[in-house]
Amino acid sequence: MIKKISLGFALALALIGTAKADTLEKVVIQDVVGRRNVVVTNPQTDEKVFLHVKPGCGDLVVSQPVSLLITGDLNGNSDFLKIDSIHQCAIDQVEPFTQKLYVRQFTNGNSEILATDESGQDYLIGYGELCQAIPQFRESWIFVLQGNKTLAEGDRLYLPDNTGSCSIDRLEKQAVAKSTTPSKPSNTFDRQRPTSVSGLKAILGNKQIYLTWKAAQDDRGIAYYLISTSTSAIDTKDIGAAAMPNVVQEKSLRHTVTGLENGQRYYFYVAAVDTSGNQSSDWASALATPADIFVGTSITPRLNMRIEGQTTQFFYLRWDRIPNATRTTVYLDVDGKRAYSNTHYETRTFQVSKSADRRGKTLTVTVRTSGLNGLIREEKIDFKF
After folding, report:
1. pLDDT (tens digit, 9 = 90+) per residue, 143-184?
2. Residue 352: exposure state from Cβ atoms within 10 A (0-12, 13-18, ≥19)
3. Which of 19, 113, 193, 299 has its CA 20 to 30 A from that of 237?
4. Fold agreement between 18-96 and 306-383
């Protein structure tokens, strides 16, 4: 007797048969750019790719054996780089490439770069607007995917750290005297970064914070220091000044940040820049909350709402506990329309789904804390994806 099965059930069986399971593949790191951009061979395609990984794996080095936990295809969607059974980091960028370009300098109002390929040939390159983050990679490597053996207009540029990709719009090969043509970027350029700033201290003040630090060291001298102020924590390893908020320059070893709000927690970051424009690889950090300590003003603590992380599917939000709060209400608005609300006795976390219908829209999360005598504190945060 032949049993009939429904079309839906047959389709489900077909999908199960063709679905790709998670795989764990061992690879060796062939190159490291910055701290979290590594070059490996894609075990699924045998092509050379670079991966940008998020924090969690520590310092990655050339020739280090690692494993790739791949969901379906290696594309940065729910893929991970694993060091061991404990240490792993999410992969959020996977790009095939044919070679690297060393960015030397910018011309024409930062709309063009002078770059050198791995053979030592110099090019003047005009790039698309989607590579606006390229200035932070001066005297560093970026990646290029060529359609043919030689670099050409239309080839694709990929920036490290998942900061952008665009096409080459204009290309001009630069003549270089044979006697001075390097096989790789010349060492006559000062590429040595200054040491990181140490001993950063943040001294409390009324609507201001007084910062002091110890001098960084460099073989050619320190030109100035960069100071960044933020209301949220930032992973600053190998981050250029263009990606940091509220950056100012200071030539001395002290700086006063004014115009702050009492009771608000602030993060302060300081990096050194040498006379050749090289920036220290990491930023010294300090945390402080200004207050009117001289008159003993009572300050209501802030929630300090922040996005603590995100995946391809969710944003993860967190805020601080408010003393004496007996209930917390969380609201989610999408382009001003209420999508969610709920009241808890005590909660300090919330996750927001990156559903397709929310893409490009303004997401607003409002947290309202109340006590026995009514409202204590209300704060909100806006973000998009």
Report:
1. 999 988 889 999 999 999 988 999 999 999 887 544 343 444
2. buried
3. 113
4. no
Identity of the residue numbered 342: N
Query: Domain limits of the chain?
Result: 18-96, 99-180, 198-288, 306-383
Determine the length of the chain.
Answer: 385
DSSP H or E stretch at residue 12:
helix 7-18
At 178, which amino acid appears? K
CA distance 313 to 228: 30
Residue 260's SS3 state is coil
**Token pair recorded at residue 343:** 């009241």
Phi, psi of 72 (to 5 degrees): 75, -115
Q: Is there a contact between 314 and 358 (Cβ–Cβ < 8 Å)?
A: no
Phi then psi for residue 10, to 5 deg, are -65, -40
Residue 271 has pLDDT above 70, yes or no: yes
Taking the C-alpha atoms of residue 96 and residue 130, their distance in angstroms, rounded to an integer, is 18
Q: Which long-range contacts (CB under 8 A, 24 or more apart) does 72-78 make?
A: 72/20, 73/20, 73/44, 74/42, 74/43, 74/44, 74/49, 76/51, 76/52, 77/312, 78/311, 78/312
Question: What is the full DSSP assignment across 328-383?
Answer: EEEEEEETTEEEEEEEESS--EEEEE--GGGTTSPEEEEEEEEETTEEEEEEEEEE
Predicted model pTM: 0.45
Q: What would be the CATH architecture of the domain defined by 306-383?
A: Sandwich (2.60)
User: How far apart are the C-alpha atoms of 264 and 207, rounded to whole Å?
Assistant: 9
CATH superfamily of 198-288: Immunoglobulins (2.60.40.10)
Show the tokens assigned to 266.
């602030």
Using one digit for the tens of pLDDT, what is the confidence trace for 57-109?
Answer: 877 888 889 999 999 999 988 899 998 888 899 999 999 999 999 888 877 66
